[in-house]
Design goal:
Layout: H1 3-24, E1 27-31, E2 43-50, E3 58-66, E4 71-79, E5 88-97, E6 105-117, E7 129-140, E8 152-162, E9 171-181, E10 189-203, E11 207-215, E12 220-225, E13 231-234, E14 249-258, E15 267-280
Antiparallel strand pairs: 1-15, 2-5, 3-4, 4-15, 5-14, 6-11, 6-15, 7-8, 7-14, 8-9, 9-10, 11-12, 12-13
Length: about 280
């Protein structure tokens, strides 16, 4: 093959790898966070903790635009429950899209400025996980019951730090998942077969562009970082005809923290920036 033709073929393959997802429906800019305040026509605050605790278990929270650089900053510093050495506590601090039912794709630049996670030696099967996450409830596999997430299918892509990670402190993983909710609030969820994996690593302070997209026509989810090859997760055997019981799509700083009866108590910390958020065209306000 002539060098010129080989170069052209490589170019076509690279363009195709990045552009195929947008062929489903064009992605359009949703927010660059250039306003002094978060736009209430585009966003709504969202947070959740389980188990709930009197007075809350969040130590420090920030959800604001940074006008010096025009980013969204979300910070979550929180801790697990001290009453047992089993299970985890969810401390989720998010910014939700105002029309989540219209969204099938979310793409955003993400920079994790800091991520820390400490575990519990007496709870080794539940490492603490600190994440900067793009997340959503997409459909129900049975019949929609408004407000009940049982049998909802959720998906997300995230930059994360596990308390049992052997990577250097400034190295973070990029992971994706597709799971089936097993209870009303989706506190317990089970990954579908082949529904989780890694998209490599990134260092603290490094920008990465992440894509989460639902391709209902092909019964699959699409995940991608930057311009690398996409990953497809197919959900064969599940019906996607029903809307999710919980309507929620978010950007967030989410901690899944090991419970521990000993001190010091496990802590999850995420300080992340988001900007240049794109969604599928029909979801624009």
């Amino acid at each position: 093959m002539k060098p010129r033709m080989l170069q052209l073929l490589v170019f076509v393959l690279l363009v195709g790898a990045w552009g195929f997802a947008e062929a489903l429906e064009p992605l359009k800019l949703y927010d660059k966070f250039e306003q002094a305040l978060i736009d209430p026509d585009k966003w709504v605050g969202s947070q959740f903790e389980a188990p709930p605790r009197f007075g809350g278990s969040f130590l420090e929270l920030v959800r604001k635009t940074t006008q010096e650089e025009h980013h969204l900053r979300i910070l979550n510093r929180s801790f697990g429950e001290p009453v047992s050495d089993g299970g985890i506590s969810l401390r989720l601090f998010r910014l939700g899209f105002t029309r989540p039912d219209t969204i099938t794709a979310i793409r955003s630049r993400v920079q994790v400025r800091n991520a820390e996670s400490t575990g519990c030696p007496d709870n080794p099967n539940n490492p603490t996980l600190a994440t900067a996450q793009i997340f959503g409830f997409f459909f129900n596999t049975n019949a929609t019951v408004l407000g009940d997430g049982t049998n909802d299918v959720i998906a997300g892509v995230q930059v994360q730090r596990r308390s049992n990670s052997t990577d250097p402190p400034d190295v973070l993983e990029i992971s994706y998942f597709v799971s089936l909710c097993l209870d009303r609030d989706c506190v317990v969820a089970s990954p579908i077969p082949g529904g989780s994996g890694l998209l490599g690593t990134v260092t603290k302070g490094e920008w990465v562009r992440l894509l989460l997209q639902w391709d209902s026509a092909q019964d699959r989810f699409i995940f991608q970082r930057d311009r690398e090859q996409p990953v497809f997760v197919t959900y064969q055997g599940f019906s996607d005809a029903a809307a999710p019981g919980i309507q929620l799509k978010t950007l967030g700083a989410d901690n899944f923290i090991a419970n521990c009866s000993n001190t010091p108590r496990p802590v999850g910390v995420v300080d992340a920036l988001f900007d240049n958020v794109f969604v599928n065209q029909s979801a624009l306000p």
